[in-house]
């Protein structure tokens, strides 16, 4: 039942975002919300260990001015979809998120609000995927919302296409979580050997 509900929610989210994407991209608020930037040295990576179909290394853009730094590596930690995906209120699956990394969708509330709710659910970190499911190259710089709230968990941004494929794969396989390592050190690894997903633009 949980997987069917999640699948329906995911489909509704995809349809809604596809309908609104054009006007959102052109609106002034889109650009005020966060800045789009190219590669920066502070970007971090995580790797999926399971399921095998998702076994790639994914690049993340750390939140600019909120959340804790990614200092301690989380090995073999669960990556769990928040329900609802936007994570603007305490997730219905808070029990599953406890001790895991929350994967949430951009939209409906600030990045800080999402981090606060994920932290309240017991998540160790939060990854926010873009709500543009076709986005395979533009990284958003997540910024504070000036509400004086200070989430104490790390937060980072993931490309929409990668987030969508991860979410879709887990739901179709009826798996509650993926197993990941975050962050992974690729400092001495040439970029062409990063094992990035084939759908990502290099």
From TrEMBL:
A Pfam match: PA
Domain of life (superkingdom): Eukaryota
Protein keywords: Glycoprotein, Signal
Gene3D superfamilies in UniProt: 3.50.30.30
Residue ranges occupied by any PA domain in the UniProt entry: 79-163
Signal listed as a keyword: yes
Segment forming the signal sequence: 1-22
PANTHER family reported in the protein's UniProt record: PROTEASE-ASSOCIATED DOMAIN-CONTAINING PROTEIN, PROTEASE-ASSOCIATED DOMAIN-CONTAINING PROTEIN 1
Name of the protein in question: PA domain
Gene: PRADC1
């Amino acid at each position: 039942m949980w997987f069917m509900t999640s699948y329906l929610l995911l489909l509704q989210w995809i349809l809604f975002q596809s309908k609104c994407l054009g006007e959102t991209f052109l609106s002034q608020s889109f650009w005020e919300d966060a800045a789009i930037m190219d590669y920066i040295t502070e970007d971090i990576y995580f790797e999926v260990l399971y399921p095998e179909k998702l076994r790639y290394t994914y690049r993340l853009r750390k939140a600019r001015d909120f959340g804790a730094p990614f200092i301690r590596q989380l090995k073999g930690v669960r990556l769990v979809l928040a329900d609802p995906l936007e994570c603007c209120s305490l997730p219905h699956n808070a029990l599953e998120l406890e001790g895991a990394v929350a994967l949430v969708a951009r939209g409906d509330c600030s990045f800080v609000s999402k981090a606060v709710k994920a932290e309240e659910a017991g998540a160790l970190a939060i990854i926010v995927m873009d709500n543009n499911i076709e986005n395979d190259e533009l990284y958003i710089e997540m910024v504070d919302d000036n509400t004086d709230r200070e989430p104490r968990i790390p937060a980072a941004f993931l490309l929409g296409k990668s987030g969508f494929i991860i979410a879709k794969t887990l739901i179709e396989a009826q798996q509650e979580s993926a197993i990941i390592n975050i962050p992974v050190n690729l400092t001495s690894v040439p970029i062409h050997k990063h094992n990035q997903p084939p759908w990502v633009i290099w």
